[in-house]
Each structure stands twice: as structure tokens, then as C-alpha cells.
Amino acid sequence: MSSVPSSRLPGYPHIAYDDGSLRVEQASLADLAASHGTPLFVYSKAAMLSALAAYQRGFAGRNAQICYAMKANSTLGVLQVFAQAGCGFDIVSGGELERVLAAGGIASKIIFSGVGKTRAEMQRALAAGIGCFNVESEAELEVLNGVAVAADKRAPVSIRVNPNVDPKTHPYISTGLKGNKFGVAHEDALRTYQRAVSLPGLQVVGIDCHIGSQITEETPYLDAMDRVLDLVASIEAAGITLKHIDFGGGLGINYQGDTPPEADVLWHKLLAKLDARGFGQKQLMIEPGRSLVGNAGVCVTEVLYLKPGEQKNFCIIDAAMNELPRPAMYQAFHHIAAVTPHEGSGMVYDVVGPICESGDWIGRDRELAVAPGDLLAVLSAGAYCMSMASNYNTRGRPAEVLVDGATTHLIRSRESTEDQLRLERLVG
Ligand code: LLP
Questions:
Q1: How much is the average pLDDT of 242-255?
Q2: How many CB atoms lie within 10 A of CB 134?
Q3: Is the CB of 324 under 6 A from ligand 1?
């Protein structure tokens, strides 16, 4: 990104320069960094709610349940925003279940996804009374049945089907193709449903599909919907009623000029397909993660050193692949903006963290007019950053602040080294 910012950052309506310094809603990032230190995650509540509103507009007048895929950002204060807005949650572990309950989420609005649920996780989720298990294999179906029978309960289930559609995204986050570990193959789906209805501990309630993440085109969704509706028709023709259709998440966001469809526009088209096939009355569920939180968050970081070199100039910052893992993992792009820009054209830098790996880069070939001590904001950092943060190099995880207009809430304190050492024991 150029070092000369306009007052608005295109694509980030809740993040703007005011009086020469970057703000999230009405909160100054420089002030927040001064109070809480860096690296620091800052989230806009209004940005989350406006992303949610696009889905709500798309579903106006429909029987639909939006289940926030909390793996994108599972901090309690963020979950609270969505719970208070009426969302359910898509979880993938027992830990995520406890987080939803701690944040005031309603158990009956929880769906449990994932290929590797343990018996203990199933028992806990059944006892809590979750809304649906999205089952990903026949083997899992049998185990869940056993767990439910032993608990004298019936587990509500959907079967996740793999529609074999290319979502045209990074291979690590593509999930709906035949070679992926996810879901039951299209051709095996009917047989799996027939098995499910024969098991006494299960109650079939729906069908589920999720084809991948950071999807920026509508065609994969439209194709997947056709494939899923073909299955709904054949499953119902076999006498098995499906109450709901869960169409997963995956809608992309703008990182680098990406232009994903708007949620309401996409759903207008998908709902037209449902209506045309006569399934418009069924309950709809979706599991969006990134598109609800990704562009609501920034990571504020301080420039530690500038290191000019023969081939590259390095701008070394105090954030790293611990808290911003996406460039290292997926060669992902995040915009980087000066919090309080200087005049002048600057230099081209690779922006890197302090971790002892060459993979620890945050941005490559960025033009920045910066000096040590300056603050930078790494944008689009609301999703899959803090929730994937690690303690590599014994670095503590950052603090997080939720901004609501002019009010700021510290929703997570910075992790201390003491916090990190607490679970460890010396030998003897
Ligand atoms: N439902 C299921 C079953 C999923 O596996 C996922 C994401 C979602 C919903 C939410 O997808 P979203 O709306 O957020 O795209 N760490 C990667 C993304 C991994 C996505 C995993 N599954 C990244 O940083 O790009």
C-alpha cells in the first residue's frame, strides 16, 4: 500500500484516518497502542454487525439461522456480539462448545462440524442439547449412535455431503472436492442417510455442505446448491424428510482488491434456486466465519528496526507469524497501513517479524515511509489470526480490544510469560 493514505481506506468503512491518524470507529489506534501495548488486535463491532446485516437482508422473510463459524475468531467478547445479535454458532470442538456457552450462546442454536469428533465431545454436546451434529462419515454415524443410545438420547444429525465442486480457492482451504477429507461422497449420500434413519440413537434433521473458504466467485456456490438439491430430492424420494439445508460458510472478503459477491446478492440467487426446485420453505442454515469478522479487525504493531540490504530492505515489526499466521501458511496478502503517516514517498520493504524463520513475513515489497517506533496497522486481521495464534518462540499472545463507537473494551489481556509457564513442570 502506498504510504500516502486517503482519509478512508477503500473496503474498510469502519476504519479511517482522522486528523492524520488511523481510527477504528471513533477509537484512535495510537491511543489504544499507548494504553495496551503492541502487538494489539482491535475490532469494530459496527463492522461485524454490518457484515451480519448483509446476510440478514438476504434472508429477510425466510426461516433461516445464521451460525457464526467461530473458528474464525473465538474470543468471548466477539462471540457475545454475535450471540446478542441472535446468531447460532458452528463449532468444531468441545473447547468451542464451552466458549459459546460461556459467552451466553444458546445450545439449541449450535451445530457441531468436523471430521474428528471424539466420544467425549459428543457426550458433552448431547448433554448440552446442541441443535445438530454435522456428521462427516459412516464411521462417525455409528459412534454417535452408540454414544446417544448409552445416554438414552437421540442425536439430531445432518450428513455433510461432498458435492465435488471446485471452490477456486487456496488448496489448503478447499474442502468440497473428491480428494478432500471432508464429507460423504455424493454417490454414497443416500445410502448413508438410509443407514442413519435405521439407527435408534439418531434423528435425521438436515443436510449439510461446505465447499471451502475465501470463495470470491458465485459459480461454485450455485453449482454446489444444484448438487445438494439433487440429493435432497433423491433422499426425500426415498421417504426421508429433511427439515433443514445447511449450506456452510466460505464467502470471501477483500484482502487485495478481491471482489467476492455481497452476501445478500449471492443469497438472492441461491434462494431463487431453492424456490425453483420447491424447497424454499425448508429451514436454511449457514456457517459464515471470515465474512463476518475478517475486515472488522486490525493488528497494530510497532516498527522495531529498519534493516536496509543489498537485495531487500526489511522493516522488522513486533508482530509475527504467531499472531498473523496467514502469510506464512497460505502466502496470504494483508494490507499494511501506517497508523500516523509521514509525508514523503518512503522505501520498499519486506515487512517481517522477529521469529527465527524466513517464513516469518507479513508483507512483501511494501512501500512505506516509516521510522523505528512508528505504528503500522495490518488490515483484514479479524479472522483466522488471533484464533490461530501460537506461543512459538515463547511469545505471549496479544491483547484484544473491541471498539463500539467511542467506547473501547479490553476483551483479552496480553498473555504473560507466567501464563505460558503455568502448565509446565520441571522434572524431579
Ligand atoms: N463451516 C465449516 C465446516 C468450516 O470448515 C469452515 C471453515 C467454515 C464453516 C467457515 O468458513 P469461512 O466462512 O470462514 O470461510 N485458516 C484459513 C481458513 C480455514 C477455514 C476452515 N473452515 C485461513 O486463514 O484462510
A1: 98
A2: 28
A3: no
- Between CA 294 and CA 69 the distance in angstroms is 12
Nearest CA to ligand 1 atom 19: 173
pLDDT higher than threshold 60 for residue 3: no
What end-to-end distance do the CA atoms of the chain give, in Å?
54
Beta strands in 70-113 (DSSP E): 88-91, 110-112
Q: Which atom of ligand 1 is nearest to the CA of 160?
A: 3
pLDDT of residue 1: 43
314 lines ligand 1 (CB under 6 A): no
Q: Is 392 in the pocket of ligand 1 (CB under 6 A)?
A: no
- Residue 328: count of CB within 10 angstroms of its CB: 19
Rounded Cα distance between 243 and 247, Å, is 13
For the record, the C-alpha cell of 5 comes out as 493514505
pTM for the whole structure? 0.96
299 is a catalytic site residue:
no
Pocket flag, ligand 1, residue 330 (CB < 6 Å): yes
Which of 206, 240, 244, 219 is CA-nearest to residue 59? 244
Taking the C-alpha atoms of residue 219 and residue 217, their distance in angstroms, rounded to an integer, is 6
Q: Report the nearest atom of ligand 1 relative to the CA of 292.
A: 13
Domains for the chain: give ranges and CATH numbers.
7-44+294-421 (2.40.37.10), 113-288 (3.20.20.10)
Question: Per-residue pLDDT tens for 209-219?
Answer: 999 999 999 99
Peptide bond into 39 cis (omega under 30): yes
- Burial class of residue 384, CB neighbours in 10 A (0-12, 13-18, 19+): buried
The C-alpha atoms of residue 284 and residue 64 are separated, in whole angstroms, by 5
DSSP character for 215? B
